[in-house]
Write a structure and sequence with these properties.
The complex is a heterodimer of chains A (121) and B (404). By secondary structure, chain A is an alpha+beta fold. Helix content of chain A is 44%, strand content 20%. Chain A has one domain: Sufe protein. Chain: A (Alpha-Beta Complex). With 404 residues, chain B is an alpha/beta fold. Chain B is 38% helix and 16% strand. Classes of the chains: A alpha+beta (121), B alpha/beta (404).
Chain lengths: 121, 404
């Protein structure tokens, strides 16, 4: 099955999300809602030496938002905060090789933009 | 079952369209679209004010719609029909015009936990603004209202019971006439408001049989144009209601010192109305009447049974609501395993199957059901068994994509 949106990478991470859970004693703790569907995403993380040393998320969202966040947590773990801040959403979306409609781009980027917002503040 | 689909031009534009979202808004038959066009080509002028023929004819079409609607819901007097923008506006009018004037701090309004936000938030605002208490009637495991809980409330404080006739999520038909009789038998003198948004388009409606005091519904869910809804209320209640909007048309006399208001329904219809939409709603009532509401009830029950059967055969489909067509309509909420409703909707959309996914403007009910959202299928007379077959096939595809 080669679905244009639900690629293997999305289905895999949807079924077995990585870094799923809440980090205890996290210095970053943010909950964001997707205004289109009301889905919630909570991200918790620890920053050590300007690096994302630990990160976890919980979500009641759709396959796209959940899988995308799971992929993102793997990508940014041990990444410098500054390096993540420079990451462009277009580049992140390319990881999936999927066709996202405008509505689903918002799903795919929910975790990405939430983490950016959290690290800024 | 007759093929009513041919009357709906959208299915000529999209021959493969499987429209299963009529609880959100219905499609429009050619007869309604023509009535709107005819308004502009044959009648267009302002109503109630011209001394010329064109305006008089326009007024006649407009007021005939009011009469047709009164007859359609079993109201005695067309002057008890108030045109509003939609169902929400009708309920807000009762909240602003009647409840604010006649209720006081500590009074109780009872609603149910399955209400649409439109029959919930206006009452919650009265709680914030004037200390009205809002009581939520719970639903039981069979998705029925535990309405006898009303007996626990202080009789002298309970002023209004506001219930949907049909749940827009569960499809349950609430036994309004039975509830009304039970209330009277138990000396509960509270007024009864019925939110008919999901019932008036599908069930033969009679306000006297229901024993209600207010009935509110939307035109666009019953084949009519968007932009017009109806509030019916007993005359004696309209008399003790304040208008919400004031200004033109709703007055009987204005001097520099004082404005005196007109009688209902004019009192509540300030400004120029949604003229073409009212004309279209009259045509929708004609169309529904010609088919016959009993026929619609029968055909939809058959289709609902067929849909429920098909859905029940898929092991991972979990229906939230009654599993047989008895005491329910064709508004069917369900989930497909652990797959998010939006992902289900996405795959169905590729097959031109339109379903609703989300909380359906009933977030408190979602909490009660412990659901984050559901897929909702809702039927109307233009749907066929083939539409249901395509839905079932589409769900098969969802399961295949998600390998569950």
């Amino acid at each position: 099955m080669n679905d244009p949106l639900y690629r293997e990478i999305i289905l895999e991470h949807w079924q077995n999300p990585k870094n799923y859970g809440v980090i205890k004693g996290a210095s970053v703790d943010i909950t964001e809602t997707n205004p289109i569907c009301g889905d919630e995403m909570r991200i918790t993380a620890k920053i050590k030496n300007k690096k994302i040393s630990e990160i976890g998320f919980v979500s009641n969202g759709c396959a796209v938002s959940k899988a995308a966040m799971s992929v993102l947590t793997q990508m940014v773990k041990d990444m410098g905060v500054e390096e993540f801040e420079k990451m462009k959403p277009e580049k992140f979306l390319k990881t999936f090789g999927a066709v996202f409609s405008p509505a689903r781009v918002k799903c795919a980027l929910l975790g990405f933009s939430t983490l950016k917002k959290a690290l800024k503040s | 079952m007759k093929n009513w689909k041919k009357d709906f031009p959208i299915f000529e534009t999209y021959p493969k369209l499987v429209y299963l979202d009529s609880a959100a808004t219905s499609q429009k038959p050619r007869q309604v679209i023509s009535a709107v066009t005819q308004w502009y080509t044959r009648y267009n002028s302002n109503v109630h004010r011209g001394i010329y023929t064109l305006s008089q004819e326009a007024t006649e079409v407009y007021e005939n719609s009011r009469k047709k609607i009164a007859k359609f819901i079993g109201a005695n007097d067309a002057n008890e029909i108030v045109f509003v923008g939609n169902d929400s506006e009708g309920i807000n009018l009762v909240a602003r015009g009647w409840a604010r004037r006649n209720l006081k701090r500590g009074d109780v309004i009872a609603i149910s936990e399955e209400e649409h936000h439109s029959n919930m938030v206006p009452w919650m605002r009265l709680h914030q603004e004037m200390g009205i208490k809002v009581f939520f009637i719970p639903i039981n495991a069979d998705f029925e209202l535990e309405y006898k809980r009303l007996g626990e409330l202080p009789k002298s404080k309970l002023k209004l019971v506001a219930l949907s006739h049909v749940s827009n999520v569960l499809g349950t038909v609430n036994p309004i006439a039975k509830i009304s009789r039970w209330m009277r038998a138990n000396n509960i003198s509270a007024r009864l408001l019925v939110d008919g948004a999901q019932s008036v388009p599908h069930l033969s409606t009679n306000v006297a049989d229901m024993g209600c005091d207010f009935l509110v519904f939307s035109g666009h869910k019953m084949l009519g144009p968007s932009g017009v809804g109806v509030l019916w209320a007993k005359k004696e209640l309209l008399e003790v209601m304040d208008p919400w909007l004031v200004g033109s048309h709703m007055i009987s006399k204005v001097t520099k010192k004082k404005a005196t208001y007109a009688q209902a329904p004019d009192k509540f219809e300030a400004g120029t109305g949604r003229l073409e939409a009212v004309a279209g709603l009259g045509a929708a009532v004609d169309y529904l009447t010609r088919i016959g509401m009993k026929t619609i009830e029968r055909e939809e029950a058959e289709l609902t049974e067929y849909a429920l059967d098909g859905l029940c055969k898929i092991p991972i489909v979990n229906i939230l609501g009654k599993k047989s067509a008895k005491d329910r309509l064709g508004v069917i909420s369900f989930n497909v395993g652990g797959i998010h409703a939006h992902d289900v909707g996405e795959i169905l959309n590729r097959r031109q199957i339109c379903v609703r996914a989300g909380d359906h403007c009933a977030q408190p009910l979602m909490e009660v059901l412990k659901q984050h959202g559901t897929v909702r299928v809702s039927l109307y007379i233009y749907n066929s068994k083939q539409d249901i077959d395509k839905l079932i096939e589409g769900i098969g595809e969802v399961i295949k994509v998600f390998k569950t």
